[in-house]
Structures are given as C-alpha cells and as structure tokens.
Amino acid sequence: MNPTIELLKSHRSIRKFKDQQIPRELFEDLIRAGQCAATSNHVQAYTIIHVVNPESRRKLAELAGGQTYVESCSDFLVFCADMKRATESAEKAGADVIRGMTEQLLVASIDAALIAQNVVVAAESEGLGICYIGGIRNNPQEVSDLLKLPEHVYPVFGLCLGYPDQQPEVKPRLPLAAILKQDAYDDSQDEHLVARFDDTMARYYRERTGGNKDTNWSEQLKPLFTSKLRPHMKEFLNKRGFGLK
C-alpha cells in the first residue's frame, strides 16, 4: 500500500496526550506544509491563532464545552476564516471592494479547512495525534473577544496537536457506494447501505466500550436533527461581516 494512502486511512482523533512538547522547528514545518494546501484564487483566506497562554487555553477549553485536551495537548490552534487581509490588500491596490458576500464566507471557510487538513496529515506523518475542536463555535463571540479577532474574521474550529498517549481504533466510515455516485445522484441503495453501516457501527461501539454503549450511526445523528444546532451562528456571522449578500 502507498504509505501516504495508508497514513490517511489510519486517522484517529486523539484526546489524551503525553506531557511532551512538539519541537518548534517541527511545529513551524507543519504550518508551512499547511500553507501548501489549495486555496481559492490564491486568496489564502485564513489566519491561525497559536494559543500558548495557559489561562487562554483553559478558557477556550471551557468555551468549547469542557474539552480538557485543549489544555493538555502540546499545541492548540484556532483556524480562522479571514477575509480582512485580502479585501484590504485589494482595496490598497485600488479596488472598490465589496464586502459581506456569501461566497466570501464559503471561500474563507473552505480555505481554513484545507490548510488545517494539510497540517493534520503532516502532523500524523510525524507520529503526532490531532483532534479537531468544533466546539469553538459554541461561543464564537467569546472566542473572538478572547483572541481579539477583528471584523471579517471568524473562528471556524480549533485543533489539538501533540504526542498521543492512547491508540484508539480507527472509526469505520460509510461504505464507498453510499458516498461515491456515478454521473448523477442515485440514492436507491442508500437505505440498505446505511442499515449495513448501522450494524458495523453498533459492533464498533460495543467492542470499544466493552458492551457499555449500545447505539449506531443513525441513532447518534438524532440530536443533530432534533434541535437547532448553534442557532447563534447566523447572527454572529452577520455581525462579523460575512454572508450578508
């Protein structure tokens, strides 16, 4: 197997880290590798906040829902969608810029995700562990205030980096046929494929917890669709200058 493909297929989220710091030279190489990710029109619409201050890390862990590994990992990053730098640069070059376009929100959010995933792959290739922290969006205004984020910048997610102190199993994914379609969207087999995947996930949860967790993929999805998930985000993004037009 190609070692890069094998690495990608072995991804796990790590939530327990050794008390060991990532060397600064390696840390910066990871970020440089991240910068080599694709970016729409070379805008590079992202900024990464490397949170070093212990009190800030503690506060972010609390704001993200009590995720203590935000504090215990070697390095914690907050990936921000950033249209401030690009629009101001275009303005200085003489453009009559238009701010607040929904497409700008999409471009910046996608750019942030792409650079982060490059960082993740680079980190895992060095034997490091990672955990994305979407809980940053639980309290985006408080996070923005803490990190002093200006208008046209918003925190998309956090990322824990460090040396893993656990070896969890790789979590199963949906069958390829469920997510790979030919020529057009065809969901005629999806019900069957999802049922099979539910069985797979039920076995996974039972084995991982020694029989203490009896659930499956579909059951785990229910909370996401029976309540309004982070309803504050629309107003928050509007106030940040995103998604108005």
TrEMBL record:
Gene3D superfamilies, per the entry: NADH Oxidase
Keyword terms: Flavoprotein, FMN, NADP, Oxidoreductase
Stretches of the chain forming a coiled coil according to its record: none
Similarity remark: Belongs to the flavin oxidoreductase frp family.
Record bears the keyword Oxidoreductase: yes
Taxonomic superkingdom: Bacteria
NCBIfam families hit by this protein: PRK10765.1 (NF008033)
Keyword Isomerase tagged: no
Pfam family, one: Nitroreductase
EC number(s) on file: 1.-.-.-
Uppermost EC category: oxidoreductase
SUPFAM superfamilies reported for this sequence: FMN-dependent nitroreductase-like (SSF55469)
Organism name: Marinobacter excellens LAMA 842
InterPro entries associated with the record: Flavin_OxRdtase_Frp, Nitroreductase, Nitroreductase-like
GO molecular function: oxidoreductase activity
Domain Nitroreductase: start-end pairs: 9-163
UniProt protein name: Oxygen-insensitive NADPH nitroreductase
